[in-house]
Amino acid sequence: MATFAIGDVHGCYRELRKLLEIIPLDRERDRLWLVGDLVNRGPDSLKVLRWARRTSREMGGRFQVVLGNHDLRLLAMDRGWVRPRSWDTAKEVLRSPHREKLLRWLARQPLLHREDEYLMVHGGLWPHWTAKQAATWAGRVERTLARGKRKARQLLDPSIDVSEMSAATADLHRALEAFTRLRSCTRKGRLCRHSGPPATLPKGCLPWFEVPDRRSADVTVVCGHWAALGLRIQEGLVALDTGCAWGGALTAVRLDEPTVFRQPALE
Asked: Which of the residues 41, 57, 183, 264 could staple to 245 if both were Cys, CB 3.0 to 4.6 A apart?
């Protein structure tokens, strides 16, 4: 049984289909993972969601998706908590007659998936978390998002100031930031809001996976989100966002070898 992980699709359906033709995936035996941000930025979010939901039915638990910040943004737009902007190409999903079933499927996907020595999230993990603590926090956030509109809105509506939240909700918000938005942070674990390449990080900021004594270093974290980082495979890390929606490529890695498969952007 092989495990193939694919980076941020971002609505790049044509590239996804071509990449799947390259990957030697045995759909009856192998596992297929997606690191989140299935939608937005690219042209075909609706087709990607339809494919993902269908593949989930066909492959069952061997197909795993984790939620990224753009997936959560789409769910927030659906609920009226976020106003679409000109760059929100996932608006086509909201106009689809299949909107309800597609977004119901998307909302059920986890923030973290752990299997064997691999742990998959979209963004990253706070350096002080162990893998077990990260899984615990993911479960807490997932239950909060599913529990009801008020608590979910506090986590997904960017207009709500964290300082106005209770301490417990602020902790959940901080955990969600790690899972979906973390690229770099200080040694003390404070988020650095920087999307450029690591060489341009502000003073005092490090890639989250390079913070000394990171407590999750005993697992290999499979992630995406940081297009400016590009493909990075090293001990304890497989980072897969190669910027397909920005004219880069869509990348997959067979985790157990590892072997890299790449489909350049077609648009």
From this structure: 41
Give yes or no for residue 62 having a pLDDT over 80. Answer: yes
Residues in the chain: 267
CB 1: neighbour CB atoms within 10 A? 8
Which of 16-30, 43-57, 131-145, 156-170 is predicted with the least confidence, judged by mean pLDDT?
156-170
249-254 and 3-6 strand pairing:
antiparallel
pTM of the model: 0.96
CATH number of the CATH domain containing 258: 3.60.21.10
Q: Give the closest residue to 206 by CA, choosing from 236, 183, 240.
A: 183
pLDDT-derived band of residue 47, with 50, 70 and 90 as boundaries?
Answer: very high
Domain around 210: 3-264
At 64, which amino acid appears?
Q
184 strand-pairing partners: 192, 207
Q: Distance (Å, rounded) from C-alpha 139 to C-alpha 133? A: 10
